[in-house]
Amino acid sequence: MFRDQRITPQQHIDFSRRFGRLMIHVLHQFHLAGHPEILTVSNILEDGKPIGLGDAGKYWHSDISYKELPSLGSLLHAQELPSEGGDTLFANMHLAYDTLPAALKSAVEGRRGVHSYLAQYGQLQKEGNWRPNLSAQQIAQVQEVVHPVVRTHPENGRRALFVSEGFTTRIEGLPDDESRALLNELFVHSVRPEHIYRHKWQPHDLVFWDNRSLIHLAGGTPDHLRRKLYRTTIEGDAPF
Ligand code: OGA
Ligand code: MN
């Protein structure tokens, strides 16, 4: 985390690019004008229209885990912050794996999980007004993919759980009810309080996190308070 970064969107992009290719979010509606590498995360309406994704992070997730090459990390830069709420929570998925009860550890060994951008999309459309209907082209960009449930971090060699409520829909090769039950146990375990860091935003904070090691959640902002952040997302390698 870097406090008090008074940088422009172009500087945010240039810095992010030093770590890899930048991913362009499928919701082009919420790209920052002139900078498709930046996704606007905001609950603000201008002329009655959302300027950004207002419900980003409503469910625990790792950014863009629904692609063959998920994200290595994301950089979120605070633009406008509410006077209360608006925290972002991070759960450590290495710890989550290390502390899994033995029965769960063996249940996930060698398993693969299905990840889909659409996992919660319909639900999010029902809960709020942030989610546009996806075009056929957008749907074509988010075909579901399969990743190991336990991945090895390519840089530190540690194992991490790699499933989330936001994007993981089922465990391959298990009957639906078993898959659902196992995922629910993993979701609950992942976000035990001792695995969590809660970020309280300060003006101009730039937070850079590792999507291979963490899942994250928007803690929620009261509707009447404005919040706006800019996000870049760096492409990573295929999980193994
Ligand atoms: C994101 C995200 C959470 C938040 O931008 O990827 O999940 O607190 N944001 O805004
Ligand atoms: Mn996110």
UniProtKB/TrEMBL annotation:
Cellular component terms per the entry's GO annotation: cytoplasm
InterPro entries: AtsK-like (IPR051323), TauD-like_sf (IPR042098), TauD/TfdA-like (IPR003819)
Listed Gene3D superfamilies: Clavaminate synthase-like
Pfam families in the cross-refs: TauD
GO biological process, one term: sulfur compound metabolic process
Keywords per UniProt: Dioxygenase, Iron, Metal-binding, Oxidoreductase
Coiled-coil region: none
All copies of domain TauD/TfdA-like, residue ranges: 2-233
Domain of life from the UniProt record: Bacteria
UniProt GO molecular function: metal ion binding; taurine dioxygenase activity
PANTHER family noted in UniProt: ALPHA-KETOGLUTARATE-DEPENDENT SULFONATE DIOXYGENASE
Family assignment from sequence similarity: Belongs to the TfdA dioxygenase family.
Descriptive protein name: Taurine dioxygenase
Source species: Achromobacter arsenitoxydans SY8
